[in-house]
Every structure is written in C-alpha cells, then in structure tokens.
Amino acid sequence: MTPLDTLIREMIVETGPISVETYVSLAISHPVHGYYASKMPLGESGDFITAPEISQMFGELIGLWCVAVWRTIGAPRPVLLVELGPGRGSLMADALRAARIAPDFLEGLNLHLVETSEVLAASQRAQLAASGLDPKWHRTVEALPAGPAIILANEFFDCLPVRQFVRGTGGWHERLVGLNSEGHLCFGLAPDPEPGLTAPGEPGPETGQVLEAGFVAAGLMARLAARIAAQGGVLLVIDYGYDLPARGETLQAVKRHRFADPLRDPGEADLSVHVDFGGLARAVQGAGARAHGPVPQGEWLARLGIHERAATLRRHADERQRAAIDSALLRLAGNGADPSGTNMARLFKALAVTAPGLAPPPGFEMALA
After folding, report:
1. Which fold is adopted by the domain 38-161+214-354?
2. Is 45 helix (H, G, I), strand (E, B) or coil?
3. Which alpha helices (DSSP H) does the chain contain, by range?
4. Rounded CA separation 164/61 (Å)
C-alpha cells in the first residue's frame, strides 16, 4: 500500500466515494505523493517514452516550425516560447538547436516552462544549460507573463483528469472510486443519474457504455485560446486521442512500459486518457480563436519534411545509426506511402490554435477544424 493509497482510503472513509477526476488528479499531481512529485517517469528506465526521446528529428522539426510561425505572426520581439510539461527537456533542447538557423528569432526569445515536478525541472535545467537562454519555470499556465507566445504542448493534455459517466436505464451515472467490502479501492456508480446529460427514458446508447468528459482539459484550452486571441501567438498540441465523437473508457495506467491496474498503488504509475480533440476544438472556437486540425502525427511530420530530414541524417550515419534512424522514422511517422501505418503515427494527432484570420501554420494547410 502506497502513502497516497492510504490517504485516498482515509478520504473516502471520511467523506464518501470520490470522482474519477479527483482520483486521477491526486494520483498524478498530489504535491508529496503524486506520480510526478518525486520520480523520473521517462525513458527506458522509467515507465514510458515520448516522441522527443525516440528521435532528435521530432524536436528539430518543431523548432523550425516555431521559427516559421513566429514570422507568420509578424516576428514580434520579445516573444515567449512556452512548453507545457516539458518532460526531460529533450524536445526544447532539440528545437532550440534547430532554431539556430534564425538568430533573429533566438535573440528576441523569452523561454518559459510550465512544470510541477522538481525532478523533471532539474533534468530540463541540465538539458537547456547550453542554450544560451535564461529559462523561467512556472507551476501553472496562469503564472506566465503577458505577451505574444508560441506554446508547445506535447503529450500534456492526456495527463489531465476526466470525469466518467456510465449509462444506466435511467440516464448517465457518474463513475466513482470507493472501497469494496475488503477495504480496497474499487469503481462504483453514483446512485442518481447526472442531471442534464440525458433525460430518463430518452433513447440513447446501450446500458453500460462509458462517456468521458474532459472538463479540465476544455477549461484550460479555453483559457489558452482566449490568450492567443487577445495577445497573439500560436499553440501547438500533439497527443494521442480522437477527433470524432466517441464513447468508451480510455483511462489507462502504465508502469515500467506495461499496462497496470489504475486503482493499484496510486502515485506509482502513470495515468492518462485519450484526448478529445473535437472537444478541444470546440473550446478554442468558444474562446474566439481558430483551431486548425487535428492532423494525424504521421501526416503532419511528413508535411514538415521528416522523411527528408531522415535521409540527410542517414547520409552521415553508420549502419547501426541508419537502422536506428529508420526505426524512429517508422515509429513516429510511418512510411512515406502510408503515414498511418504505425500506432503512433495514426493515433497521435496535431492541433494548432491561432488568432482569427491567421493563415494555417505549416503542416495544417487544408486542415481547418
């Protein structure tokens, strides 16, 4: 039993079952016992790996993308370059290295990182020490200074908690986390249907279907989009998820690169959900900004030139390095003939947010939401 497991059980005994949203928030973000509070989750020795850790090409293309969109929005100086949940700092380090082709961009750059984990922040400091910049760290988006900003969010929104509802005969009942007869954490349902989702007796989905509602993600996206609309800039979101209306449970736990029970040992496994890109796009539009996409990651990276970049790297690589480049390319973007040929290339998607009237950013041409 983990310390957080004990804390959650005591909370349930005192106040009753808690929502899935509350449970996930505690498991991920508790300041002392949460998953990101004290461990290094990324890499082969951690629990999962992200695109920037697979290949330098991912971050390099995003760095060039940042230069291009900076010029599209009028090359403001200063401009904030912001990353939400920067992981070990690999993406930003690769992006800044690629952006050296545009000294004017780097000269007017203020670097800001939104991070709650001190362990990850220490890794980011080490990765960015040679950048020549003076990064600033913040624990919340609200702490960012005002001004035009290029904001990057790679595998960030999937970490935000969702509420879950299960269809019963009389409506949608919220899924809760409580205790079973043996005192272990278990899922259950609120006794009364959630008001406003559907009326009793209304034709709808089959009993037992699960509906996930990402209120936290939609609220954050609305605030970011409102900032973009009012102050200028561009937001790039890359994550795994869906863009068409969908029902079903996507909450998952990963520990040591394997799926685990999300209710077992809270605080010791990564919890995530598939991102509702359609919901994010609606939040963007409601905030007065413009959503572009989503576009499958494989297609987006191909439009940015990842296959050409891989070919360049292969020319200066030995046999072992060429094999690694080819493997990373296939994993990130599929092959040239079928960019949807791998799970990551197909399931991961890219979404951009701009002020109204701005041309689609690179890779999002013909991809307005």
Report:
1. Rossmann fold (3.40.50)
2. coil
3. 3-15, 20-29, 35-38, 51-54, 56-72, 90-98, 103-107, 118-128, 215-231, 277-286, 297-304, 306-315, 319-333, 343-347
4. 36
List Cα–Cα distances, 331 to 126, 275, 320, in angstroms: 27, 20, 17
CATH 3.40.50.150 boundaries in the chain: 38-161+214-354
Give the pair of three-digit tokens for residue 149: 């900003």
- For 175-234, the DSSP string reads EEEEE-TTS-EEEEE-SSPPTTT--TT---SPTT-EEEE-HHHHHHHHHHHHHHHHH-EE
Profile the chain (369 residues) by mean pLDDT over runs of 10 residues.
92 96 94 80 62 92 98 96 96 97 96 94 94 95 97 96 91 95 94 76 70 95 98 97 83 85 91 95 97 95 94 92 92 66 80 94 76
Residue whose C-alpha is closest to residue 313's, from 298, 296, 332, 294: 332
Give Cα separations from 303 to 100, 169, 339 (angstroms): 21, 47, 10
Q: What is the pLDDT of residue 308?
A: 93
